[in-house]
Amino acid sequence: MSERLLLKVGGSVVTEKGMQGVASPGAIAAIASEIAAYSGGSLCLVHGAGSFGHPEAKRYGLAAGADRTNREGIALTHEAVCRLNQMMVEALRGAGADAVGIHPLGCSWARAGRLVSLETRPLQHLMDMGIIPVLHGDVVMDEVQGACIVSGDQIVSFLGERLAFTRVGLATDVPGVLSAGGEVIEEIPADISPEVFAGGSRNTDVTGGMAGKVRELQQLASLGLPSDIFHLSRISDFLHGRPHGGTRVVGRMNYG
Amino acid sequence: MSERLLLKVGGSVVTEKGMQGVASPGAIAAIASEIAAYSGGSLCLVHGAGSFGHPEAKRYGLAAGADRTNREGIALTHEAVCRLNQMMVEALRGAGADAVGIHPLGCSWARAGRLVSLETRPLQHLMDMGIIPVLHGDVVMDEVQGACIVSGDQIVSFLGERLAFTRVGLATDVPGVLSAGGEVIEEIPADISPEVFAGGSRNTDVTGGMAGKVRELQQLASLGLPSDIFHLSRISDFLHGRPHGGTRVVGRMNYG
């Protein structure tokens, strides 16, 4: 059976998160060539916004909603993340993978900051043809609060629930979820509060950092789909199903 | 009551249709400044692909469908029309209108070449906030044939049926639908075959030219929403509800 993978790369690994709108071309190129070299099945890619979009979203307070007074933040935030998305798609196509960018703003709908709808049929169809859909954290129109920020992690959780993926992986700028002592936690069950895990991402962002990431994955794990968090340098290991030295979020504690 | 307008600008008026991937910056800037000057209500804009996308779509035979043998045409066609869309959005924003690009590939779904779904909630919400959604003819994934080409005209017909527009207008490179004698036909009823109208667009395209345009509008008119076809130079007249010297597609012949 061929694999169907959902891979997310953190915004902090593809951008210089301290510097607004600055990409990490080296990281993007490396990720693209590892993905292009994978031929074991179909793939959907999601990336975070990193330094593209977060500054605009913060400045206009979009996480709390939007109306006519701060609406100009919507287009500015969306355009910023779309620029990053275009770089990712171009890098993939340059490396020999077939890929198209898909922007959540146009194809999804939220309620009080949570996705309630995202058109998955084109994604499924693209993957079936061997084309990689590349989604990203984005500003999304919201039934309750006008607009909201939907993180790449929330998109992973949403898609993981609805498309039949065989494995889900998140590449980050750390080797996995770290304990207060700085060691990789090998396994996190779905029923433990993510706040107990200290540290993680070097920068905070509007979408919750490592605790937010784990919370999204715990939701997936509770539905029966475990996932892996690992360092950027281990993407190829994840794609090919090899040990990646990171953290696995599972449905319940493995007491074996 | 404030107006809610659906305006489509033909691919042939915003691009040099004989020359692949060449935009008409003057036409784009003129359209953008006329739209930015309009303050009578909300607006949704759709544009055709013109010389962006049509050549790629033809080369890969996408109108007849797609599978793994011609799938690379999907990303190439989509990227081409997205480039044109970005120019339109940038021109609008540069002229002072708030606008975002919305790409049908990600947010819609077709069956045998006809749209069966397109996420309209974000469009409605954006318009309510005073932001112009800018859609375009695109390659769309298709349940029956893998992929298909959905024209801007088909998008107009689809949106016209589902969102509560007060008026629908199509700006073209001719003054309206022309008779064999070259005169503007003032009124076309929904129940007359569009093939009876000669001429029209100077260039044929994969989406049916003027006859295809009229057919889409007749569908709308039969549902109670008349529409107007007029020359590019009359956009401002249309927006402000003034006579535009073009053709009106109506539900049934006006024998008055």
Search tags:
homodimer, 256 residues, alpha/beta, 8-stranded mixed beta sheet, globular
Describe what this molecule looks like in 3D.
The structure is a homodimer of 256-residue chains. Mean pLDDT of chain A is 90; it is low at 198-206. Chain A has a single domain (3-250), classed as Acetylglutamate kinase-like (Carbamate kinase), CATH 3.40.1160. The first copy, chain A, has nine helices and twelve strands. In chain A, a hairpin with a 3-residue loop joins strand 7 and strand 8 (146-150). In chain A, helix 2 (25-36) crosses helix 4 (72-94) and helix 7 packs parallel to helix 8. Chain A is α/β, with parallel strands linked by helices and 256 residues long. At the A-B interface, helix 4, helix 5 and helix 6 of A face helix 4, helix 5 and helix 6 of B.
Which helices and strands occur, and which strands form pairs?
The structure is a homodimer of 256-residue chains.
Chain A: E1 3-9, H1 11-14, H2 25-36, E2 41-47, H3 54-59, H4 72-94, E3 99-101, H5 104-107, E4 108-111, E5 114-118, H6 121-128, E6 132-136, E7 138-142, E8 146-150, H7 152-162, E9 167-172, E10 187-189, H8 209-222, E11 227-231, H9 235-239, E12 247-250
Parallel strand pairs in A: 1-2, 1-9, 2-6, 3-6, 9-11, 10-12
Antiparallel strand pairs in A: 4-5, 7-8, 11-12
Helix pairs in contact in A: 2-4, 7-8
